[in-house]
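Q: Could you fold this chain for me?
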Amino acid sequence: MEELLKTNDMTLIAYVEALLKDANIPYQVLDQNMSVIEGSIGILPRRVLVPEDRLTEARTLITDAGEGASLPPAAR
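A: Sure. Below is the predicted structure, expressed as structure tokens.
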């Protein structure tokens, strides 16, 4: 699995999850349970990971959906 996105914007994560799900790209969201430790205030970023062989496809999907600026610079 490779990191596609790292953000604390829960709306963006939900949007990316929906895009990936619709495109049948497997994904995992890591660090969700950190919200318990941080007190659910959303300051710690969550990471969205996809299989390495689907990373380019996922990056293209996110960019085409207008969220390319949210990807790490190397992913653009």
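A (continued): The chain has a mean pLDDT of 87.
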